Amino acid sequence: MTSTLLESVNIHKVYGNGIKHVEVLTGVNLAIKAGEMAAIIGASGSGKTTLRQRLGTLASPSKGELFFKEERFDSKSDRELASFRNRSLGFIFPFHHLLPE
Fold first, then answer.
1. What is the pLDDT of residue 2?
2. Which residue of 8, 14, 51, 68 sits 20 to 30 Å from the alpha carbon of 89, by its own alpha carbon?
3. CA dihedral 75, 32, 26, 79 (to 10 degrees)
4. Other CB atoms closer than 10 Å to residue 13's CB: what's the count?
5. What is the model's pTM?
6. Burial category of 76 from C-beta neighbours within 10 Å (exposed 0-12, middle 13-18, buried 19 and up)
């Protein structure tokens, strides 16, 4: 049995100031097992980047829990998250300026 590598539980992200707000993520639940491949796809503006930032611990959710190898990460300090990313994650950013032209 393969263990869960990355899991999000009821992830929400709200942008705004209380008077005016936009809910970008509303209750995202996701479980990726070790060795599995996953893709986040959707229309422009659907929240793919917002979700990727939360899953990669680059930004915190407004609500919800994030686990890596069953350890909770949504409430860790910036220093702890930076150390975690340095040791355990890699990112491929889809920006054209990273490629030589």
1. 64
2. 14
3. 20
4. 21
5. 0.81
6. middle
Q: How far is residue 41's CA from residue 26's CA, in Å, rounded to a whole number? A: 16
d(CA 11, CA 74): 10
Contact 57, 66 (CB under 8 A): yes
**Tokens read off for 18:** 């209380």
Torsion of CA 58, 10, 12, 68, to 10 degrees: 0
Check residue 17 and give its pLDDT. 80
Token pair of 10 as six digits = 């009821």
Query: Collapsing DSSP states into helix, strand and coil, what is residue 9?
Result: strand
